[in-house]
Every structure is written in structure tokens, then in C-alpha cells.
Amino acid sequence: MNQDMSILHLVLNASIVVQLVMLLLVLVSVASWSAIFRKLFALKRIKAMNEGFERDFWSGTTLKELFEIATRKNAGSGPMERIFASGMREYLKLRERRVADTGMLMDGARRAMRASFQREMDVVEINLSFLASVGSVSPYVGLFGTVWGIMHAFTGLASLQQVTLATVAPGIAEALVATAIGLFAAIPAVVAYNNFARDIDRIAIRLETFIEEFSNILQRSSSVSAQPAPGR
Fold this sequence. Notes:
- It is a single chain.
- By secondary structure, the protein is mainly alpha-helical.
- It has one domain.
- It has 7 helices and no strands.
- The chain is rod-shaped.
- The termini are far apart.
């Protein structure tokens, strides 16, 4: 008599512990895919907003005009624009206090931009640790389900007088499904984590480069002009 060895039949006939492990892995996989798509769209949006602001920044628009636009946008601005706004805001505050020393002006602006940079990177890296955890832990959770399932299968065989491959195979196959689901959850998470980590590193480098370029512009402006709102 042929036994039904379909995946659905194996899952439905697995022990309760193995079924719970499978359910947990399926839920983790769904959460992982949700995090992957959210992060994918978020990084794409961040890149587009940074590129748009960079074009405006180097288009010849004055810093005062850019700062006014960034202030009006508020939450609708991108990371690079918010870093620019924080540095410019601090710079203008120091100029209003009659701080004439270029070193103090630049130190204050850089500190403000660095603090803003760290906040932006914390936001950009959201869900990255979750994907790393899914990628590293899921195979072990699946392996636990497999070990438990094999133990359960051999315990059931202990009462049989004659053991054949036909009696052993279903129990082992049921247990191995847990490992397969664990790998199904882990592999996409690992691939996505590696790709996102590389993209985030590129964003960080681009933001740090902008901070240095903007700092140089502010330094030149503070050296040749005493106006509160410098131009380029």
C-alpha cells in the first residue's frame, strides 16, 4: 500500500511539537518577507530623496534658499536634507550670537551634522538586526524540530516487532520538513541582509562625503563673509 508522502500530508501528520516549530518558522518567514519589502522600498525612497537634494544643492541655489525649503518640508525631507538643515541651523545660531571664530562655527556645525547623521543611520538600519537574527536562528529552530520529530518517530517504532524502510521513512520525512522550512525562512533573510547592509554602507559613505563637502563650503563662507545666511 502506497503512503501519501506529499508535503501537506507530512505536515498534518507530524507531532504537535514539530507542527508548532513549523508554524513558528512560517510566521517568522512571513515577517521576514514583510521586513524585506518594507526595507527595499524605504532604501529606494531614501536614495531618490538624497539624489534629488544633491541635484538642488549643486544647482547653484543659495544655502539660505535651500535651508528655507528644508525647513518648510520638515518630515518630507530626506536624510541628506535633514543633515544639511541641522548643520545650517547650528551655523546660523552661532552667527546670530556674534561668534566670529571660524573654528567654533565649524565645530558647532559639524557636531550638529554628526548627531543628525547618527539619528538618520539608526532609522535606516531598522529591521536589519531582525533579518540577521532570522538568517542565523531559523536553521537551528528547524533542526530542533527535525531532531524532535526523529526522536518521536523512533519512539513509536520501539513497539513494533518488524521495522522496515516503509515504516521509518514517513516519520523521518515529517521531521525533515521542519529543517526545509527553517532554510526557506533563513536563506532569503541572509541574502536580503547582505544586500541591504551593502546599500546602507553606500548611503552612509555618501552622507559622510556630503558632510565634508558642506563643511568646506561653510568654512569658505565664514572666512569671506560675515552675513548670517551665507551663499556660495
